[in-house]
Amino acid sequence: MTEFNPVLLALIGTGFTFAVTTAGAAMVFFMRKDQNPRTQRVFLGFAAGVMIAASVWSLIMPAIEMAEENHMISWIPAGGGFLLGGLFLLALDKLMPQLYATLTRKSEGFTSSVKRTAMLIFAITLHNIPEGMAVGLAFGLAGIDQSPATLAGAMALAAGIGLQNFPEGAAVSLPLKKEGFSKLKSFSFGAMSGIVEPIAGMFGVLLATTVVGIMPWMLSFAAGAMIFVVAKELIPEAHTEEQSSAGTVGVLAGFLIMMILDVALG
Question: Is 1 a member of any domain?
Answer without folding.
Answer: no
